[in-house]
Amino acid sequence: MNEGLGSPMPRRDGRIKVTGAARFAADVKLPGLLHAALVTAPIARGRLVALDPAPALAVPGVARVLTAADMPRFAAVTTPPMATAVQPMQDDVIRFEGQPVAIVLAATPEAAEAGAARVAARYAADAPLLFSGERAEVPSRESFYVFEEPDLARGDVPAGLAAAAHRVAARYHQPPRHHNPMENSATLAVWEDGRLTLHTAAQWTYGVRYGLAGALGLAPERIRVLAAHTGGGFGAKGYTWPHQLLAAVAAQVTGRPVRLAYTRAQMYTMTGYQPEVAQEVTLGADAAGRLTAVRHASVSNTSLTDDYIEFAHAGSAGMYATPALQLSARMARTSLNIPMAMRAPHEGPGMFALESAMDEMAHALGMDPLDLRLANHADADPSDGRPWSSKKLREAYGEGAALFGWRERPRQAARDGHWILGTGMASCIMTVFRFPASARITLRADGQVVLEAGTQDIGTGTLTIFPQIAAGELGIPIERVTLRHGDTDLPETGGTFGSSSTACVGAAVQDAARKLRARLDGIAALQPASLGAPAEAPEALLRRAGLADLSAEGRYEFGRPFDAAGHAGSHAMRTFGAVFVEVAVDPELGLMRLRRAVGSYSVGRIVNPRTARSQMIGGITWGWGMAAMEASVVDPALGRFLSKNLSGVAIPVNADIPADIRIHFVDEVDPHAGPLGAKGIGEIGAVGVAAAVANAVFHATGRRIRDLPILPEGLLGAGAG
Amino acid sequence: MTPMDPAPLRRDLVRAASLAALAPALPVAAQPAAAPAAAPTLRVNGAVHDLAGLDPRTTLLDWLRERLDLTGAKKGCNEGACGACTVLLDGRRVNACLVLAATLDGRSVTTVEGLARADGTLHPVQQAFIDHDAFQCGYCTPGQVVSAVACITEGHAGSEAEIREWMSGNLCRCAAYPQITAAVQDAAARMARGEA
Amino acid sequence: MQPFTLARPASLEEATRLAAAGAMPLAGGTELLNWMRLGIAAPARLADISRLPGLDAIAPLPDGGLSLGALARLNDVAAHPAVRAGYPVLRQAIHKAASAQLRNLATIGGNLLQKTRCAYFRAEESLPCNRRAPGSGCAALHGLNERHAIFGWTEACVATQPSDPAVALAALDAVVVVAGPAGARRIPLGDLHLLPDAAGAAADTALRAGEIIVAIELPGPAPRSAYLKIRERESYEYALVSAAGALVLDGRTIRRARLALGSVAMKPWRLPAAEAALAGLSLDDTAALRAALEPAFAEARPLSHNGYKVPLARNAALRVIGMIAEGHAP
Fold it and tell me: Is the confidence metric ipTM above 0.85 for this complex?
């Protein structure tokens, strides 16, 4: 019945993406279009004292300069769907460097940019507020970003540590890192008859609708949000950001279509970043390596105005069996823009610390790092004892280790010329989120099937997976299924984030297909059929019944059995895995390169192994970037991200990533994860990689690096050689 | 130069009043460049377009995207640091964000839209990208595809390592790198067999 | 970008005349366009010299050297048979620079005129930077200076020169031929880039108003040469440190050594004392080679966050000798 599921079908969006025909937000044009360029504050904190638009207005082609005085007063909206509670251009207070203070509108992008550079603004600057763990505070529970308990305690950690034969206590640190999707966020806004239409870069079309409806005081139905293709999100396009709001207002004020496309620099201050995270992990273990206590405390930076927090202990809450757990997450305010969830949030930073500490413990015990993980396998959720919805982590360890040759690896680091080769591994764990979703399927009498859902395409494979599910359920070739998506005129879905789309939208698609089949069966029962005749094609049945088409709507509701964060209810649900890497280090030159990697995962059903493999390779590469280069450094005097570009901030290039990356999925269907048995894979690939790399560096050189990224400065002179 | 080095001492600094005294590679006299006989034009994917009256600031990238509505080439950084805007200029891959359109009179540009045949048959590189799942969101893909075509025709697709290095001017944040490398290898083989 | 007019001079003489009158020459465009976007430069007029005839020629010199036309594209220089055979250090430096796309645009002459990659200098806003806004101070001096100079800096500027080819050309004792309103002259590559002075040296190079680089002349071939570039990313990134070396060998004995370091100062940094000390040493005596290099690094003056660059640069210099000894590219 589910013949579509599990098939490695090529992407259906292949042709439009390799020919340049796929249109992204900034590719859309309308007659009379005005180009917007933002003027942003060059100070981290203070006040805008004066702003003179006259020099900009004198630039040929500039039509209008909008300042705070031209803005409506936006109503308060929750975060999310708004990314930040403080809306742009409402007052003269500067809360972060890069905050928008004016919009220049012009007939050409050249004129808009030249005009923006000419706007004369004066500021009164206050000293920036820098990250300090000593100013850690508990987040407000009013922020929806605070979806977990900041503190979790179970058992007696001091007693567990006192009784331990071995203890490891260490601090870990990572700098802010930006999402840097290749597409800069952009919005084209146009008003017609009191209705607003946006073409925008978004991971959540409906979220943009709700955010703007709230801020502008409009009924949601009067806002249509279109996002046919989004050029990478990774969390940067999950919620509603200034480009969407300001483009909408600029179009309203001018009565013309307005395109507001962020520059790359503006991406650094108006779409978030993974915050700076400082962590401390303390582990106790008995002589056999069984954990007696786990303590994991973290502090991450947030803005002056929003309570975003990185729950770095999220992985520690679910990873290992231990009688005593003590977890805490705090945030510290800075005068930077708000951070944001970034692939992989929470577990991503946290598992760097936990899995590094586990490697330190394995070394202290003289135990194979994999054996230490196996000895502490959690057969039930260690935070509350609930059974797992499904878990095949033991298989993932074993099958991954076999693929990598972990058991056969040289105990002493091998040499290859100037390179020292080290191997390392880490466990992976990820929370999967759930959002309600709906979808509609229409069968037409000509045999074509139209599948409709508001969901968006950010490259995760959903344009292939959803038709695959529909075709499988209906027993028709996928070529007959057309997907309409990326539009709030279509049935509502949640965001493409939180590793949720396949499981949730996919379930709605499956539900719609099953309902359509049931209706077809009902029609068939009413039609006289000749005994022993071959099964009738559904469209033939439709024609015989005199119907032009037949539709059904399907739904997926969360809370049955899991809540939005995927962990309430009778079972605990997580995805699991293990990542193994071989890294080459040249200590004389401080160089580190990835030689090969194996990622082995227990994540429930895989709907399309081909797109799933690509997503995991992307995740491992993401983790390599975290381990080896990514850092958005903040100047301490200026309180701003120093480099806001791709020439001064390194992300991995092709030459960094070897072809020898093997991805393995354990054969698994999670019976509790929803009707598809799929849990979600968007983020787990990025988890654990940085720890595996740091552990491999330790294996190669004996040097333990606890500050990311691992740069030449930290590797120079490492190792006996 | 350091005082230790005898070699350059052979060459006293030339104070020549005339350019004719310079090295033989230099033009002896001022040669007028071929004066444009007609209005400046630029050929894009075979079609000739007028460049007259263009704002000198307009980059090739903005011109393609805003004037010609050829939006395959993307603006990912606008500083030559990502490769999303890669096009072929007289057959060579370049960053379209770093070229002023007004300087291109008489030259020829191929964008991703110009690679497939008129009958819709994909270029072998395009087909290989689909076959190897060498993209996800698709935003960097037009630049990757154009760059890959050049990488192969330049003769830089001889090995996995060579492809990885010569394709490193195109960032992919979804990180389809191993699949891109495989696609380039495959397409190079197909093109060598004359399937192009 | 602020508005400008675009001139297309038909001759070198016209180009230098335009440049003397304030026009900025536009060749590959890979730097100039970004300067204009960032506000580092705001010329009222550009002179498009990219198609001046003859200036992209690569031709042998009568003394056995090689002349590289300033407008030759980087990839064309690296691919030229004479460069391939005689100047591996230059070929490698070019291939380690930028990306294939950028190297198809960037010219060998323009590449030498790259400005520093100091992030304060390159910001999209004007930050305290004497090189960008004279008198505004140097934010890097006590700021984030991990990638900055260890040689030749002043309190006014601690930036480095980022060109890879320039380092190779420095090691090759190249000479830059320039043409200007007052005629032509030759500048040894080592004298082209200026170290900062006490005020921060707004001038990057010794070029005078209106002067345009027309060619780069290489002395006779240096087949035993190599370039090493160190960076966290494997490709398409500026160097933390680089090293160019050219050796003349007698069997396994060094007869003459030329070494230049990149990204350690505002110019390619030759190591004359080390070069002299290396003469006569065996390639196989690593301890002696290391000892010969060591004094050059005693003179280094690291900043608050870049002390690691001193041993890194020393190791790079040693390694590049090893690369030449092994006869292969990195």
Answer: yes
